[in-house]
Each structure stands twice: as structure tokens, then as C-alpha cells.
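Handover notes (outgoing to incoming on-call)

Open items:
1. TIM barrel protein: sequence verified, structure written out, both below. Nothing else pending on this one.
2. Nothing else urgent.
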Amino acid sequence: MKLSFTTLGCPEWHLDQIINNASEYGFDAIDFRGLNGEMNVWKLPELSTNAQESLARITDAGLKVSCFSSSVQAVSVEKYEQNINEIKEYARLCEIFGTPYIRVFGGKIGDLDRAEATRLIVKHLKEMAQIAAASGAKVLVETHDDWTDCRYMQPVMEQVNHEGAGVLWDLHHPYRTIGEQPEATWDALGQWIQYAHVKDSVKVDGTGRRHPHRYVLNGQGEIPLKHMFQLLKDKGYEGYYVYEWEKAWYPEELEEPEVAFPQYVQYMRNAAEELR
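TIM barrel protein C-alpha cells:
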């Protein structure tokens, strides 16, 4: 198993801490989703004027940059130009860092009917895919928000039909939020799945909360992760298993990354042994 993590899980760490801890804990790569309080990481010196120096530090530690996770919501018309510019910035970073993926969200469809939303997201994703592909990368649409259901995502990917586009399977969201079974997700989307987010949770009273679940350390919740890993292995998946510990969004509720990250690596290494 190739292991990565998003920097959403360590919002207080500076770049040296991220690199040193990633190496020490046994990760293979880093997925940038924010740094030093800035979500648009291309604006930071570490990933602009000093990008080559940062690349050397990451490479010297035996690590790669597996993905740049954007805030793009591909269906949006209002933010279309902003989204295209963001993809261009990340495509530039993909060239510098040898990174294969840019994560995007499908986004909320609001008052749009599903057919119009599908038309828009297909149009926008084709344009984003062309930009990414020119830099040797792909835009990956996450199974999230109004595109969690594979029945909505499948026709999008069929119509986009571009080498520069793929799917990020968040193993948690379809199962937890709509009860979608892993086999259904794979049957619909497997040919496009390039990348996987991993996290666990338990159901809780949703009153006053963003979601009716609470994230917990892997193996301590109700998501059938090992069943999902077996499915991925059986289907020949060779991509990253990426820990998305949402510490930045739930700072008081979630364990510190110094606890959660090494626990994740150990859990995943144990799972890999069981799959042999």
C-alpha cells in the first residue's frame, strides 16, 4: 500500500514538520490541502518562489507529492474563471513536483436541475482536464457533496471521457452519507478511480453539528474499511491510500496529528499484511 495524507490533518505544522514527520511515520507521499493557514498553497513562497528548494527537501526525505487538493467546485458558473485559474496554478505545480493529480469537488447544484448540473460539470471538467493533461496530470472529482452518489457521477465521467479526468473515491462519504455499498461504487466508477481517501467514523446525534457522524481513528468506527481495501486489491487498484484527517475543520474534536498519523500508518500496514 502506498500511503499519503492531506495536510488538512496537520494545520499547525510548517513544511519542515510535515516533511520530517511524514518520513518518520512511514508515509510515502504528501497531499497538499493547505499550508500555514493558506488553502491556496500556490500563493506561498514554499510552493512558488522557493518551489524547487521545497521539492529537493521532499525528495531528499524519500517522499513524493501525491496530489494538490484544490477548493474548486467544478459545477459552478459563478466561480468559473476563478476555478480555471486555480487549476492552471495547480497544473504548474504538478509540473514542478511531478505530481499526477489535482483534486476537485463536483460542488453543490443549488437550484439547478440534475440534467443542467450534469451538462455544466461535464463542460467545465473537460476544460479543466485539458489544462491538467497538458502538464501531465489529471483532475480527480471526489465522491462528495452533490456528486457522492455513483449514479450521478457515472454519467458525468462517461461524457467527460478525457485522459485528464478521473475519480477520487472517498471511501467514507458514499457509504456513510447515503448507504452506498462499496461494490456499487466500484461497479459504476472503478474504471476512473485513481485515488482513495481513507477515514473512519461513528454515528452521533446530529443536532447542532455539521454532520450526524464523528470521525474516529481508523478501525475504531463503523466504516468497513478492510472490506473496501480487499475490494480495491481484488480489482487491481495500485494508487495511494490517503489519510484525510479533518483536523482543520474539527480542531477541538479530533486527535492531534502526532497521535492520528502514526496510528493510521500502523493500521494500514497491518491491513496490508492481512490482505496478503
